[in-house]
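I would like you to help me understand the sequence and C-alpha cells below and explain how sequence relates to structure.
___
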Amino acid sequence: MKNRRVKTLKTRTPKPISSPLLDTPPAAVTVDCSEDFHSVCKWVIPDFRRIKSRSLYSRYFQVSGYDFRFLMYPKGDSLSVPGHISLYLQVNDPCSSNCDCYACYKIVIVNVVDETKSLSKESVYRFSKNRKCIGWCEFAVSNTILDANSGFLKDGVLTISGEIRVLDEKMEFSSDCSEGMSYALTGKVTWSIRNYGLLKQMVKTQKIISSAFRVWEAYLGVNLSKSMVNGAENLSLFLEIKDVEKNPVIDRSCWCLFRISVLSQKPGVSHVSREYYGRFGAGGDTSLGWTEFMKISDFFDEGYVVDDNVLISVSFNAIQESSFSFRIEGVSSGKCKGMINCGYLGGKSKYGLVKRCDDYTGKIIWKIENFSRLKDILKKKKMKGLCVKSRRFRIGNMEVRILVYPRGQSQKPIHLSTFLEVLDPGNSSGDWSYFIVYQLAVMNGKMIEKSVVKQSAERCSNATKNHGWSEFMTLSSLFDQDSGFIGHETAVFTAEVHILKETFITTESSDNACSVTWKMENFLSFKEIMLSRRILSRFFEVGGCKLQIGIYQSSANICAYLGSDPLIDNFWVNYRITIVNQNDPVKSLCKESSLCTKAYFNADLQLMKVSDMLDTDAGFVVGETVTLVCEILDCCPWLEFFEPETGDMEAESSDCQFLSAVCQMDINNEECKKTFSEVSGVLGSTPYEALQSVIHLLFKSASQCQCIPRAVNVVRARLELLGAEISPDLLDLLGSTMNSQHEIAEAMLREIDSVFSLDEKCKLLDVTPCPLSKEVPYLDSGTRLAANSSHREEESRSHVHHHFSDIFILIDMLSIPSLTIEASGAFERGVAHGYIDNQVVALVLEKHAQRFSANSTAREKNAESLFSEEFFTSVLALAEILSLSINSQVHNFVKMFYVTLFEVFSGERYHTRMLRGLVDLATSPVENSLEMNLDMLIFLVHREHGFARPVLKMVGDAAKHDNADHSAIRHHLCCLEEKIIHIGEEKRAELSNMSSEKATLLERLTETEAALLHYESEMELERDRFTCEKAELCAHIQDIETQLEQLCCKHKNHVAKHCMEKRDYQDHLHHVETQLSHLKSLKHQELKRFLFCLPTSSQQHKFWNWLQFLS
C-alpha cells in the first residue's frame, strides 16, 4: 500500500477577459485528419506581425462531438511574463453545458523552414463545466517567433497545428441516496473506457483521470497510470479528491472505505480487487491507492483489456459526519481536578493575575451520524484494526485530530480504541516536542454526566504522535441501545487540548556539563493541573545521558526534579535548578541536588511556596511566564564498587581501588596495555558480584590495545567455571557487547568454534587445555592456582553445563545478521561433537525468557510467551538449519530440540509456525530434508496426539496448493505450445516475405549503383566549374581589397585634418570665454560702484531688485 499526493498540472487557465468577439474575427481551422475520437488540425494566421488585438481565437472544430478551438494572446495574458505568447485550448459542448471530457492534446507552432525546430508542447487534461480552458501562459518567446530568420513566419503567416485525442468513456453511478439528496454515502461507480489503445502511449508518462463523483461532501475520481517498480511495469490505480469548484466555500473532505476492481472481460478469469480506507482532504491524503495494483503484462494478456475496452469499478462506504473546533472560553463548572475545562483556562485568580484564554487551548467535537452502520459493515467484512480519522484542526502551532478504532485494536473486538494525533506541520525537520494536557470523551446523549471521559498529560514528538487508550470503553456498553451513547445511529466524540507554550534553549559548556533554560509562557493555565499532573520538559542530552525537567505542585509548594530516559545506562548527575526572578535576577532561587538514573528514589527539590511565586510583586511570574534554568554541573557513568570476600584483604582491597579508579576515567592508549594486564590478573579472583564490571573494563581496555583474542580467552574460561550460574545482568552485558562490538563478537565466535570443532576422541582424552592455567601466561601464580583448582572442581561436575555460556552466546549471535551463518555452523558442530545437548539448551532458553521479562514493560509482554518475535524467528531458523544436516547425532538432537521448543514456546501461534515450517520442509523437493522432516513430524505426532489434526490440515493445504500449481503449469505449458506453433507459422511467413523483399532490394541496389555512377560524373563536371568560378572570384576580391585600402588612406587623412581644425576651434573658444568672464567681472564692479553712489538705501534696494529682475 502506497499513498501519494497528486501533482497539479503546470499549465494554468487564464483569467476571464472581455469577449473576444470584440477583438478579432475568428480564423478558420483546417482539419487534416479526423476520426471519431482523434483529430489533427491546422490553424493559419495571416499578417501575424500586424496584429494589434490582445487576443486571437480560431473557429470551433469538432472532435468526438465536442467543439474545440484555439485561443492565443500574442503579447501574453495576465499570468505570463511580458514578451511571451500564450496559447490555450478551449472546449464547448454544443448539446449541454457540462463539457466533461478527458483529452490528450499536442499544440505545435510550426517552423516552415525546418520542422525539427518547431515548438511543441503536449499534455492531458480533464475538461469540465468550470474548467473549459487549458494551455500554457508562456508557450513561446515573442521575439523568437517574430524574428525573420527564425523560420516561423513565411510571408507574415503563422501556422499552428494541433493533435487531439478524446477518451471514449462512460460513467455509471448507483448509490443509496434518496431523491433530492446531492450526496451519496454508499454506492458503486463503473468506469468504462472504450478506446484505451488510443491513449496507451500517453499513459506511460501521464495519467488518465475519470469524471468526478460526489461522496458525502467531497468529489472523488479514479486515477489510472503506469509505474515502474524494480524494473517491472505495473498498473497504478488511485482514488483521489478533486477540486471541481472555482471558489470553494469549504474545505471538502470525506472518510470512506472503498474497493477498486479491474473487471475481467474473459470468462473464467476473476476480477482483481483491492480494498482500503482513509480520509481525503482536510489534512488527510489527496489520493489513496496502489502503485503496484497489478502487473501490466497481466492487465493486457489475461483478459482485462478486450478490443481496447477497460472496465474499472469503485464501491465505497462513507461516514456522514460533522465536526468543528473552538477555543475554550470562560470558567466551566466542572469539579474534577486536572481537567482542562475545570475553570483553569480563563477567568481571574485569587492572586490578582489574569489567566487569559489563547490559541493554545481548544476543543474538538466530532459527530458520526451512521456509526452503527459503519460497525456493521466492518463486522460483515471481518475487518480489524481499522482507524477512522477526523479532520485536522489547528490549536496553537499544532494540528490535532481524533482517531477512533470502531472495533478496537485487539484480535477480538472487545474495546473501543480512541487516540489523539498531534502533528507540527511547520517543522519539516521532525525535531519538535510539545507538552499537552488532553481529554477524550464519548458523549452520552441521554445523561451528560454518564459520558465516558478520560484525561492525561503527555509530551508529544515526531516519534510519539498518537496518545490515548486502546481500551477506552467496552463495545457492548457503547452499542447498548439503553446506554445512550449511540442515539439515532449517531456517536459524538470530543477532545479538549491544552498545549504548553514554551521556549527551550540548551547551552553546552563542556562534554559533561550544560545549562538549559525552560520558559513556560502560559504557566498559569497549568497551575491547577499541576496538582494531579506533572509538567515535563523535552529531553536534552549531556555526555550520553538523556535528561528531562519535571515540575509539579505538592501541597503548597512548587517542586522540581530531574528525570532520565529509562532506556539509558546508569549515570550519576549533579545538577542545580533555578527559578528565575524576571524583575531582579539577583533574587532568583536555586537549589542543588544529584541523582542516580537507575535508582528507585531520587529526592525532588522544593523550590518555593506557591503563594510567594504567584505574588504580583515578587517577579517570578510576569504575565503568565515562568522561567526555570537547570544547570548540569557534572555527569558521568555510574559504576558499581565491590569488596573481595576471601584472600589477602589488603592486596585485594588495593586491586579493587585500582579497578574503581580505572573505571571512573578514560583509558588512553599508553595505559591500556597495563590496565588490561592488571584486570586480567584480578579476573580469576573477582567476586561474583563484581564480575560484570571487571569484564566490561577488560573488554574496554582490550579493544584499545588490540588484545581482543586474549580477552575473549580469559573471559570465556571464567564463564566456563560459572557454568549455568551466571547472573542475568552478566548475560545482558554479554549480549549487548556482542551486538555492539563486532570485533569482540567475531573473536568470541572463533574461540567457541575452535573448541566445538574438536571431535569426541579429543574430548575424552582431555586434550583441550584450560585457558586460565595454560594459555594465559600473564596471570600471576595465585590466579593460576585458583584457576587450576576451579578447573579440577569443574571436571567433577556435569559436563553438559560446562559450555552453558558458549551456547547462550551462540544463540544470541543468531540475531546478528553478519554472524548468523557462522553461529549456526558452530552450533551444529557443537551438537555433532557432543558439546551441546537439549538439557543445556532448555536452560539457556529459560535465561533468555528471564532477560526478556526483565527488560520488557507490562505493555510489551505477550500473554502467550515471554519471548520476542525476533528471538523466536532466529531460534526456529536454527532448528530448520540443523534439520538439513546429514549427521545422525544432529538428527537425534533436532528431534528433542523441537520437543523443547514446543514446551518453551507454548503459544498457539508459535506451534502453528513450527508445524508449518516442518510441513513446508517435508514437502520440499530436497530429498534429505523430506526424510528428516517427515521423521520429525511422525515423532511429534506420536509424542503429542494433538498435533495430528493441524499437521494433516497443513499437509492437505500443501497438496491442494501443489495440485493447483501443477494444473496452472500444465495450462501454461499448453498455452506456450500454442504460442510456439503460432510463432513458427508467423516466422515461416516472415521468411517468405523476407525472400521476396530481398530480391526487390537487389534490383533497387543495381539501379542505385547505376544512378550513383551518373551522379559522380556530374559531380566531377560541377567541381571543375566551381574551380574556375573560384579563381575569378579570388581575383575580383583582390581588386576590391586594393580599392578598400586606398579609401582607408583617404579617410585617415580627412580625419587627421578635422582633428587639427577641432583643436583650433577649441583654443579660440577658450580665449573668447576668458574675455567674456573678464568683461563680466568689470561690469559687476562698475554696478557695485554705481550702487554705493546712490544717496538713499531705498534707491539702492530698488536698483538691486531691478538688477535681479533683469537677470
Q: What stands out?
A: The mean pLDDT is 79.
